[in-house]
Amino acid sequence: MKKIPLNNIINGIPHAVAILDEQLRIQAMNSALENLSGYSASEAQGILIDYILRADVGAKELGAAFEDEKFFSHEGNTISAARKKVAVRISASPLKDRKEQIAGLLVFVEDITFLRELDEKVHHRSTPGGIVGHSRGMQEIFELLPVLAATDATVLITGETGTGKDLLAETIHRVSKRAQYPFIKVNCGAIPESLLESELFGHKRGAFTGAHNDKPGMFRLAQGGTIFLTEIGDLPLLLQVKLLTVLDDREFFPLGSTSKTNVDVRIITGTHRDLKQLVQDGGFREDLFYRLNVLRAHLPPLRERGDDIRLLLDHFLGEISAGAKKNIKGFTRKAYDILESYDFPGNIRELRNIVEFAVSMCREGWIDINHLPTNILLPKPPALTRQPDEMGKNRREASAGTPVSNDIPITGASWPEIEKQKILTALSKTNGNRTKAAKLLGCGRSTLWRKIKQHKIG
Asked: The whole model's pTM is what?
């Protein structure tokens, strides 16, 4: 190996670097430190580090590291050549001569401004108005958030309906380096299949009947920012191919166009469905699943979040009562007991709706039992929407103890098969009356309609 000059070595390091002698005087420094300090290497040579690097970590702290012959690292601030305060992490390692005697220090100065801003944003978003929660599951999400925000990799957010996937996706965007660019949300399950391609990728004028003007599409509108594709499990197979192309090449053809459109967009997806099961059933491309599942965050259902229920009740009560200009002090003990024993199949969305209902019914003072919706006071119904297999939970829990599920054998059958059979049985018992069938199954009519469509019944 050829001998490489010292200056070439330290200039190859992506952080500001200086080499100090035993008197803590600069013997060499790289171009990154020249830019940060405003001094050239020749000007700084032989000068005490304190006169070149104007930081709150200097010769005193570095001298201690020299005496102790130990690695040193400390976060602080420095003033740049542009007279701007810069958050830095200063690290120093002892340098030894051929006789293993300490002869100097190798000093690294790392700009951590972005990490400081990220940390401040994360803590700001965990206050009311952002993501709320102290449970272990949510703490894991908070700890994962900086990791999700610091990269451009695709993120798959899973969790039951109403657990806050939209809010988490937007939070990831807001604390990322793309925060100054748009955040676009598209619900793949809410747009008719015939319109979804145009909605996502845009079209040229005359591409189809009714296309009177060019349309940019959501991917172009999100240029530089983030696009959140929620209910990604409902994306048609044809568009799954096109999305895969965008992920690989960052370009696509708008409908009716012969020219490719290049985009720089981060993709976050969300779903309440089990994509692995969909892959096995042939409803989702395996290669797309792996491209989307680079980073993953799973939001726990509210019933598994313990004391977060009371935290969220108080949070939404304050928010909604202030908006309604009502002086409501809180919930009575009996109301708390009822609410904390309820399992909230609709998760946070349902909890918020219950609080909004209670605030509307309560004139002033305290929210009591008589202000709560009557449905949460009834015995717990079997939860068709629990979908334990979709979230990897115990499938027996959702099918036990109901007239419908007692007719269905569990052993050897997959959850989709059991669920489909339960719906068929309920429809049979009610002579096709979907309202009665939904009541028998313990779910809403819209949920039953979605399940009928999902299982292609009738």
From this structure: 0.57
